[in-house]
Amino acid sequence: MREHAEMIANLNPEIPLIADADTGYGGPNMVARTVAAYHRSGVSALHIEDQIQTKRCGHLDGKEIVDLETFRSRITAASQARDRIGSDIIIIARTDALQVSGFDDAARRLKAAVECGADVAFLEGITSKEEGRKICEIMRPTPVLLNMVEHGATPTMTPQEAEEMGFRIIILPFATIAPAYYAIKDVLVRLKKTGLTGLQAEFTPKKLFGTVGLKDAQAVDAAAGGKMLSKV
């Protein structure tokens, strides 16, 4: 998780990255280590949740959560670690309690997490717009994050609708995964059937390298007196 986050964060350090830190990967020491590692990797914000260690996707059934004190210790460890290393990384507290113990307990957990140092509240798996409005109102002035997983437990909402409800951050985990899945599957099926990928003619090797920073690499090379990239 840290390696993937570091790779993504450093594609363009000017764009802040929110990264999932699951449960923090252990007790207080491991949570603290996770915060420090994510900070060094260039991550701007991370969310830590209250599921048990052997967790599952928040939009699947059968989730189990830890007790409130364990969740508090995770957030406290994250906040204290941030202070020790002088980091400005944002701590997002996520609770999966809604499907396990109900809305009131979920709100209570988020309130407790903010008391322990969390900057943002994240109620996973909201099932209605009414729940969204209610948690934003209860948590105000703490910003609340919406996890917009299409076709999961949460009704589909646009960023504009979410903002009107009171959310201040929205993440869309399927926004690139789903299109990539269908595009890759289609081209591989076509290759199997026809022996050809059918890729667009303009997608050349040079275009690919241009997409991942060829011009910047050429500029660095030329500025240092190099000539290896002058003609590519």
UniProtKB/TrEMBL annotation:
Catalytic activity: (2S,3R)-3-hydroxybutane-1,2,3-tricarboxylate = pyruvate + succinate
Keywords, sorted A to Z: Pyruvate
Family matches, as InterPro entries: ICL/PEPM, Isocitrate_lyase_ph_CS, Pyrv/PenolPyrv_kinase-like_dom, Pyrv_kinase-like_dom_sf
Domain of life: Eukaryota
Gene Ontology MF annotations: methylisocitrate lyase activity
CDD domains per UniProt: ICL_PEPM
Gene3D superfamilies given in the database record: Phosphoenolpyruvate-binding domains
Matches recorded under PANTHER family: PHOSPHOENOLPYRUVATE CARBOXYLASE, PHOSPHOENOLPYRUVATE CARBOXYLASE FAMILY PROTEIN
Name of the protein in question: Phosphoenolpyruvate/pyruvate domain-containing protein
Native source species: Zopfia rhizophila CBS 207.26
